[in-house]
Amino acid sequence: MDLRDGPEEAAFRATLRTWLEANVPSGLRGFRGWTGPALALGREWSKRLAQAGYAGLTWPKEYGGAGRPWRYQAVYLEELARAEAPQHLGVIGLGMAGPTIIAHGRPDQKTRYLAKILSAEDIWCQGFSEPGSGSDLASVRTRVELVGDRFVVNGQKVWSSYAHVADRCILLGRSTTASEKHEGLTYLIVDMKSPGVEVRPLRQITGEAEFNEIFFTDVAVPKENLLGEVGGGWRVAMTTLSHERGTFGFALAGALDVAVRRLVALARERAGTDALVRDRVAREWIDLQALRYTNYRALARLEHTGVPGPEGSVAKLRWSEANQRLTKLAIEIIGQEAQVADGDGAPAYWRYQQLRSRGNTIEAGTSEILRNIIAERVLGLPRSR
Amino acid sequence: MDFSFSPEQDQLRAQARSFLEKRYPVARLAEIATSEDGWDRASWPELARLGWTGASIPEAQGGAGLSFVEEAIVFEELGRALYSGPYFSTVALALPALACAPDLLARVASGALTATLASAAANGSVAAVAARRAGDRWLLRGETDLVPDAGWVDAFVVQARGSDGIGLYLAERHDARPQVNVLDTVDATRRLGRVTFADDDARLLAAPPAAAKIIAATRRRALAALALEAVGIASQALALGVEHAKSREQFGRPIGAYQAVSHKLADTYVETELGRSLAYWAAWCIAEDDGQAELAASAAKTYAAEAAVAACERAIQVHGGMGFTWDHPLHRYYKRALWIESFDRSGAAHRAEIAHVLLDG
Q1: How many CB atoms lie within 10 A of CB B186?
Q2: Which ipTM value was assigned to this complex?
Q3: Is the pLDDT score of A260 beyond 90?
């Protein structure tokens, strides 16, 4: 047990910290989400990260990655949070599509897609959720039919981040109407520039649009874009979702770290002597430490066994609830001023964060589903329906 | 960066768990708790033989020369088993002061000496025992209340006020002196006592300036040790709750299939794991004398104690009427969790200390 950086990690951290000081564009400092003017800077920033060798830190070297152990990705996420800088715009490609292609793709698919994910030439989005399939992913109804030498896709996807800027999409659809729902699923790579693909931004509770609906109308997808087998899409999709959990907790703890730091600054400025506020700030700080050290335990397990443990579900569940409490506390401290949407100071920042946080317990696994996962897979309780 | 235990440490945990499960199964809890002393005296030489009493004591004094991380493992496992001997008192509360004298360390390592901390200050008040020099001896006079395991330890580390401030003294128990009254304690497995000194003989362990540092270090160790015990208790309460939810059937299904039940248990799991992470962090900070040790111990104790109390409360609820009975073992874990929560200061007071560091610096 050693909670300090080893010499190589310390050197990596120091170099990255200096690099971030010099390279984060002013328009992305104090980053709060890929909306508005920040979005236009996203691709350029991501290319810069890739050129400096910070894209695909844990990808195998043979696919253009740095082949580093997981802890470097953890350091990377911690330092981005410290600098309040955004991640690479292509997180879906780097964290989900890429690892899935590495696991299930043919050699020609690896050659065609992986390098461009790293370089940010191709930004990816995820076409999994549908209006009728949220938590119950295996019930997707988007049709994927093999007609001659190509697939024809018809259906609707929803809650797709980055779809409005994406070049490609990993799509889970249904290729048979057989009653066995998992066996009928097929996993495709879809070019977002194909005729028949229409992206409509979904305006969310904050007024901004980070998510999209994607409509597919007779979209032709070449047969070679199949990942895995026809009818074998569920297994491929599980690979994608398992990668969502790898070092995800560090990204969440990083975001929470930024939020707690800002909360502390806000409380110092506006409510430094209020005993109730002080108690709640201390609670949030303790929760952040609990999450941080749970991540370190998860990281050690991942490095020792190669398999992510159940801590990923724990981190997501608690982060989302902590972020909701914390942002609510911030707007309480600010008072009625937080009800005014103008400006770019603290009130506007917290107003946005508080409303945005309501999505945290829904996106990437609702809290109810995460509790089911813990109850069934970790505690071994009987399945609930 | 590697937040995991070594194979040797994992082995220590496995050894501790299997020993405690055999010697102190859940089925024996009631018998031990209602016995006259509230603990099994025969266990102490065994704990010493297993190397637990001397885990962090240097090899020169017969210890294993390991660190607080190893002791942390033992604390967690003792909590899980609701062990009722004076391990917490001796190893967490007394050991930092006993370390001033190598002969005392050797006696702790060999199992010949158990001790506790008699300190009015443990619960926030000032030292109510006075120390007076009489030739080459020290005499203690006064009373300390709420002393853990007071009834059956061989010696007291006493926080007492002398002419130049608060020092640490050792009063060994001979011929029923100092006088001890064991209090009827809610947690019968860790009884509190009142210790009355009437010019009782004592040995100076640490004079005022040095004593303050030892007192601060003792507090950190005690808080971290209790956080670890709390994690063990929460794990056990969770295990009992899960076992019941799997086997108890109502409306034709195990009650664990109902989300109103299973989600409560999932929350217990989450809080137990978060508390565990904080407790291990605190343990590492103490072992390494890290600058964050005080904050970490404080955060870990308040969080883990709350988690353990909540874990027991949810387990009682999941057990239904049975969980509310005296015969079911759950109340014993619950009472220890409440004991832990009450120790030192309230959660709110700990958070006030943390807020002071965050907001007033």
Answers
A1: 15
A2: 0.95
A3: yes
